[in-house]
Amino acid sequence: MKGSLVLLFLMAPTLASGQPNLEPADCSEVTDFSDLTGNVSEVSGMYPIYPAGHGSETLVFCDMATDNGGWTVITSRMDGELNFYRPWDHYKVGFGMPTSEYWIGLDNIYYLTSSKQYELLVVLEDFEGKTVYAYYGSFAVGDESSGYQLTVGDFTDGGAGDAMTYHNQMKFTTLDRDNDLLDKENCARKYLGAFWYNKCHTANPNGVYRWGADGTLFAVGVSWYPWKGHDYSLKSFIMMIRPVQ
Q: Cα-flanking dihedrals φ and ψ of residue 103, to 5°?
C-alpha cells in the first residue's frame, strides 16, 4: 500500500468515465463490467452501485488502484468539511459526497455484506505524511433489527495495529440511539461521533475532525488508538470493502 488514497479522491473526476451499463452491486462488479468490450476499468472515482438490487442506486467512491482495485469506500474522512455528529436516521441511509467526506449508509453496508463474504481495508494517514493500513479478512453488518451488529475478524497488520477487534459483535450507536456497553452513558455523545462502540472505542472514524495531536478534549477526534493513541486526530481515515476473492 503506497501513497495516500486522499490523492485519489482529489484527482477523481466528478463521475468516472466508462460507467457500466449493468447494475453492479459493488465496485468489484463495476470493474468487471466497466464497458461493453470487457476491458477492466482502472479509474478510481465516483460510480453508481445497486446494493439492494434494481432501483437502489447509490453513488460511491470506487478505489480501482489499491491491491488490484474493486474496493467500495464505506466511509472517508479527509478535511473536516462535513459534520459526522448525526442521528441514527442519517447513519441508516448515508450522507455526504463520495469524492469528499461521506458515509455510505448502514442499510447499504448490510445489503452488501449479507449477499457474500467481504473483506475490509482501513487506510490511515497522519499529518506528517505517513500512511499505514489494517486489513480484515472478514467483515459483515447485520440488519437494523440487530442494531447493525458488526462482525469483523482475520486481522493482518500493515503498520496501523488492530483497532477493530475491540468493536467486534458490537451494535451501532449514535447520539440518539444508545446500543453500546458503557454504563449510564452514550459513547456517541461522550466522544461526539457514531460507531460500533464497545465501552467505548479504539477506533473513532466518525469523530470530530481535528488536526493531529490535541489533548484538549479526550478521544473525540478521528482516531485509531493502536497507531497514534486517543489524542491524535488523523488527516485521513478511509474504510473500504470488497468481496473476498
A: -130, 125
